[in-house]
Here is the input.
Amino acid sequence: MESTPRLSDTLVDVFSQHDNWRDRRHRKTVAWMMVGLIQSQLVRLTAWVPSMHSRALSAQSLLRRVERWLHTNRLAGPQLSGPLMPQALAAWAPNVLSLALDPSTLWATYGMVRMALIDRGRAIPMVWKVLQHPSRRVADEPSAA
Here is the structure.
Protein backbone atom coordinates (compact mmCIF):
# COMPACT_ATOMS: atom_id res chain seq x y z
CA MET A 1 0.00 0.00 0.00
CA GLU A 2 1.31 3.43 -0.93
CA SER A 3 1.88 5.74 2.03
CA THR A 4 0.35 9.19 1.98
CA PRO A 5 2.69 12.11 2.57
CA ARG A 6 2.43 13.97 5.84
CA LEU A 7 0.92 17.43 5.68
CA SER A 8 4.24 18.83 6.89
CA ASP A 9 6.05 17.19 3.94
CA THR A 10 3.52 18.70 1.52
CA LEU A 11 4.00 22.15 3.06
CA VAL A 12 7.79 21.83 2.80
CA ASP A 13 7.38 21.01 -0.91
CA VAL A 14 5.13 24.05 -1.44
CA PHE A 15 7.57 26.35 0.36
CA SER A 16 10.43 24.93 -1.74
CA GLN A 17 8.92 26.51 -4.86
CA HIS A 18 9.90 30.01 -3.75
CA ASP A 19 13.37 31.57 -3.63
CA ASN A 20 12.74 33.23 -0.26
CA TRP A 21 12.47 29.81 1.42
CA ARG A 22 15.94 28.48 0.59
CA ASP A 23 16.88 26.96 3.93
CA ARG A 24 15.22 23.55 4.34
CA ARG A 25 15.44 23.81 8.14
CA HIS A 26 13.32 26.97 8.05
CA ARG A 27 10.78 25.31 5.76
CA LYS A 28 10.52 22.26 8.00
CA THR A 29 10.16 24.32 11.16
CA VAL A 30 7.36 26.51 9.81
CA ALA A 31 5.61 23.44 8.38
CA TRP A 32 5.73 21.76 11.81
CA MET A 33 4.36 24.94 13.39
CA MET A 34 1.47 25.09 10.91
CA VAL A 35 0.58 21.42 11.37
CA GLY A 36 0.84 21.76 15.15
CA LEU A 37 -1.48 24.77 15.10
CA ILE A 38 -3.99 22.98 12.88
CA GLN A 39 -3.97 19.73 14.85
CA SER A 40 -3.93 21.18 18.35
CA GLN A 41 -6.09 24.22 17.55
CA LEU A 42 -4.04 26.05 20.19
CA VAL A 43 -1.60 28.93 19.90
CA ARG A 44 0.83 27.34 22.33
CA LEU A 45 4.23 26.02 21.30
CA THR A 46 4.15 23.12 23.74
CA ALA A 47 0.89 21.88 22.17
CA TRP A 48 2.62 21.62 18.79
CA VAL A 49 5.39 19.23 19.89
CA PRO A 50 3.44 16.00 19.11
CA SER A 51 3.12 17.17 15.49
CA MET A 52 6.86 17.67 15.06
CA HIS A 53 8.76 14.79 13.52
CA SER A 54 12.47 15.09 14.18
CA ARG A 55 15.54 13.21 15.32
CA ALA A 56 15.59 15.45 18.41
CA LEU A 57 15.36 13.39 21.58
CA SER A 58 13.65 15.94 23.78
CA ALA A 59 10.67 18.24 23.45
CA GLN A 60 12.89 21.05 24.73
CA SER A 61 15.12 20.74 21.65
CA LEU A 62 12.11 21.09 19.37
CA LEU A 63 10.80 24.08 21.32
CA ARG A 64 14.20 25.81 21.14
CA ARG A 65 14.22 25.30 17.38
CA VAL A 66 10.77 26.89 17.01
CA GLU A 67 11.70 29.77 19.34
CA ARG A 68 14.87 30.45 17.32
CA TRP A 69 12.77 30.49 14.13
CA LEU A 70 10.27 32.93 15.68
CA HIS A 71 12.99 35.29 16.89
CA THR A 72 15.35 35.33 13.92
CA ASN A 73 15.69 38.68 12.20
CA ARG A 74 16.53 37.05 8.86
CA LEU A 75 12.92 36.03 8.27
CA ALA A 76 10.25 38.62 7.56
CA GLY A 77 6.58 37.71 7.23
CA PRO A 78 5.81 39.61 4.00
CA GLN A 79 9.05 38.38 2.43
CA LEU A 80 8.04 34.78 3.10
CA SER A 81 4.27 34.88 2.60
CA GLY A 82 4.32 37.35 -0.29
CA PRO A 83 5.18 34.78 -2.99
CA LEU A 84 2.38 32.49 -1.77
CA MET A 85 -0.38 35.13 -1.99
CA PRO A 86 -0.65 35.29 -5.82
CA GLN A 87 -1.17 31.52 -5.91
CA ALA A 88 -3.84 31.67 -3.21
CA LEU A 89 -5.63 34.60 -4.86
CA ALA A 90 -5.54 32.87 -8.27
CA ALA A 91 -7.22 29.81 -6.75
CA TRP A 92 -9.97 32.06 -5.33
CA ALA A 93 -10.41 33.98 -8.63
CA PRO A 94 -13.87 32.63 -9.52
CA ASN A 95 -15.21 33.52 -6.05
CA VAL A 96 -16.29 36.85 -4.65
CA LEU A 97 -13.71 38.04 -2.14
CA SER A 98 -14.68 40.14 0.85
CA LEU A 99 -12.37 42.50 2.70
CA ALA A 100 -12.72 43.40 6.36
CA LEU A 101 -11.21 46.27 8.29
CA ASP A 102 -10.69 45.01 11.83
CA PRO A 103 -9.61 47.59 14.42
CA SER A 104 -8.79 46.44 17.95
CA THR A 105 -7.15 47.77 21.10
CA LEU A 106 -4.09 46.28 22.79
CA TRP A 107 -3.60 46.93 26.51
CA ALA A 108 -5.60 50.19 26.28
CA THR A 109 -2.44 51.78 24.86
CA TYR A 110 -2.20 50.71 21.23
CA GLY A 111 -4.65 50.50 18.38
CA MET A 112 -4.21 47.80 15.78
CA VAL A 113 -5.85 48.02 12.38
CA ARG A 114 -5.91 44.87 10.31
CA MET A 115 -7.14 44.39 6.74
CA ALA A 116 -8.15 40.81 6.07
CA LEU A 117 -9.66 38.69 3.31
CA ILE A 118 -12.72 36.78 4.40
CA ASP A 119 -13.01 33.21 3.15
CA ARG A 120 -15.56 30.69 4.48
CA GLY A 121 -16.01 32.69 7.66
CA ARG A 122 -12.27 32.97 8.35
CA ALA A 123 -10.21 36.15 8.31
CA ILE A 124 -6.89 35.92 6.49
CA PRO A 125 -4.75 38.92 7.53
CA MET A 126 -3.20 40.75 4.60
CA VAL A 127 -1.76 43.89 6.21
CA TRP A 128 -1.83 45.41 9.67
CA LYS A 129 -0.51 48.43 11.49
CA VAL A 130 -0.08 49.05 15.22
CA LEU A 131 -0.36 52.64 16.38
CA GLN A 132 0.23 54.20 19.76
CA HIS A 133 -3.40 55.19 19.95
CA PRO A 134 -5.68 53.94 22.77
CA SER A 135 -8.83 53.71 20.64
CA ARG A 136 -10.37 51.25 18.21
CA ARG A 137 -11.74 54.09 16.12
CA VAL A 138 -10.02 54.78 12.82
CA ALA A 139 -10.67 57.53 10.31
CA ASP A 140 -11.36 56.69 6.69
CA GLU A 141 -9.26 59.69 5.63
CA PRO A 142 -6.05 61.03 7.14
CA SER A 143 -6.71 64.06 9.30
CA ALA A 144 -5.13 67.36 8.37
CA ALA A 145 -2.54 68.17 11.00
